[in-house]
Amino acid sequence: MPSSKPKTAEASFRQSFARLKAGTPKVLPVGTPVSQNNVAKEAGCDPSALRKSRFPELVAEIQSYLASQDGARVPSERQRLLKQRQRSRSAKDTIKDLKAQRDHLASLLVEANARIRILTVKARDLQTKLEQLGADGHVSPMASKSKAKATPRSVDMNGDK
Question: How far apart are CA 20 and CA 149, in angstroms?
Fold first, then answer.
């Protein structure tokens, strides 16, 4: 009765590598990507059994295959979920940052409005005092809003003091 298993571990790994490349694995689910660990799992071994020190040529073949398939590799479901989770986290972080900015700016606005109210009350009080002093005749009315012209000064041109 011939055995269906290859006689050597390397032959078993090579067969599982070929099945994974063809997309017809026997142990792993169909569509499982080719990787060094998945080749070992497909061969029915622990992933640590397929080591570069024991099978340098096979590991080099697997790595060169992976390098050539790098652009064509379809992300696994786990990788897709991780990427989606990262996008979700970054969106949550962005929302959190925007809320913090909004709260900070709202507090600055409240402070500015309070300061405006205080200054408005002070300006009204000063205006009232000014009007009272003007009515008593102690203060001359303010000049028009145009700028006062500078008065010329006599300057000693010779530098004598």
Answer: 93
Q: Where are the domains of the chain?
A: 9-68, 77-137
91-149 pLDDT, tens digit each? 888 899 999 999 999 999 999 999 999 999 999 999 999 988 887 766 555 555 555 56
* C-beta separation of 94 from 100 below 8 A: no
Residue with tokens 């041109």: 157
Give the position of tokens 């500015």: 112
Report whether 126 contacts 133 (CB < 8 A). Answer: no
Report the helix count and the strand count for the chain, using DSSP H and E. 4, 0
Average pLDDT of the chain, as a whole number:
82
Terminal Cα distance for the chain, rounded = 129
Write the single-letter amino acid at 47.
P
pLDDT at 161: 45
Give the residue among 53, 11, 47 at the shortest CA–CA distance from 32.
47
Would you give the distance in Å from CA 84 to the centre of its chain? 14
> Is 0.85 topped by the overall pTM?
no
Residues 6+ apart with CB under 8 A from 40: 13, 16, 46, 47, 48, 49, 50
